[in-house]
Design a protein that fits this description.
alpha/beta; 7-stranded parallel β-sheet; 8 helices; 7 strands; 48% helix; binds nicotinamide-adenine-dinucleotide
């Protein structure tokens, strides 16, 4: 379906980003995989993705909290594969602390990765999308873009901000063939969440699996984790013609979290 299109998926060496990169590669899309550093793991991931479809796979090492590295990644992608048709702003981090103890350095880092990076990627990708009158901007926010939880001030602020940024992009591109939407996952069992489960287990003395069950039952009524594959297939749907009139909206996959 996406043969000949080129997608940049930020933070795609793990978790949700890898799930989305996998689904796009299966659709014969050219996929730019991004992580902070090229290493054995990133080479292995690219080799696996390369076998999934007929598109090219390119690894771009870039620390997305740094503007110059984002600019370099986008310029290299254009030089090596061509103009970008699809951007998936997925790279993100979490830091948990009450506001009064929140390290300002961590606040700035989290905002630059979770929110400002998406602005730079969009700013650099939109001109080429406009020239070809087709594009897909897919921003990975969170249920925390819609509701809050304690001790996650920077994360909740960044994820609410990302939904607002996406809406502005949708309005600015409304009369073009570009759409901009946000995906809002509930709990997905990736390293980002595993760290939180381990922290809880260390504090409570309970097992990791007991804490994982508790984490789900506190917030996610389905009591099941969302999977990276489900999020990948959602991204593919957003790239389809069926979604060409869907813009400025959020697709929430949260097992009922925000229905409460
Ligand atoms: P993850 O930790 O598995 O993956 C994060 C990815 O981002 C990795 O590829 C990592 O290399 C990359 N990354 C981290 N810092 C980077 C940097 N400075 N520059 C470039 N890449 C960097 O996390 P995940 O759970 O897959 O999260 C992906 C996105 O989904 C995040 O934006 C997260 O906020 C969001 N999200 C996750 C969940 C969840 O339950 N896991 C729920 C809602 C939203």
């Amino acid at each position: 379906m996406l043969s000949g299109k080129t997608a940049v998926v930020t933070g795609s060496t793990s978790g949700i980003g890898l799930g989305i990169a996998t689904s796009l590669a299966e659709q014969n899309c050219n996929v730019v995989v991004n992580g902070r550093k090229q290493n054995e793991k990133s080479d292995e991931i690219c080799a696996i993705l390369d076998k999934l479809g007929s598109g090219q796979v390119l690894f771009q090492a870039a620390d997305l909290s740094k503007q110059d590295e984002i600019e370099h990644m986008m310029a290299e992608t254009k030089a090596k594969i061509g103009p970008v048709d699809i951007v998936v702003n997925n790279a993100g981090m979490q830091h948990v602390s009450p506001i009064e103890d929140f390290d300002p350095v961590k606040w700035n880092l989290l905002l630059s990765l979770n929110l400002t990076a998406a602005f730079h990627v969009m700013r650099l990708a939109l001109p080429d999308m406009k020239v070809r009158n087709w594009g897909r901007v897919i921003n990975v926010s969170s249920v925390h873009g819609q509701v809050a939880s304690i001790n996650k001030s920077a994360y909740v602020a960044s994820k609410h901000g990302l939904i607002g940024l996406t809406k502005v992009c949708a309005l600015e591109t409304a009369e073009t063939g570009i759409t901009a939407n946000t995906i809002c996952p509930g709990w997905v069992r990736t390293p980002l969440v595993e760290d939180q489960i381990v922290m809880r287990a260390e504090k409570s003395g309970r097992t990791i699996e007991e804490e994982a069950r508790d984490l789900l039952s506190e917030k996610q009524p389905s009591k099941e984790f969302v999977t990276p594959q489900q999020l990948g297939e959602t991204a593919v749907y957003l790239c389809s013609d069926a979604a060409s009139q869907m813009t400025g909206t959020t697709l929430t996959l949260d097992g009922g979290w925000t229905a409460q």
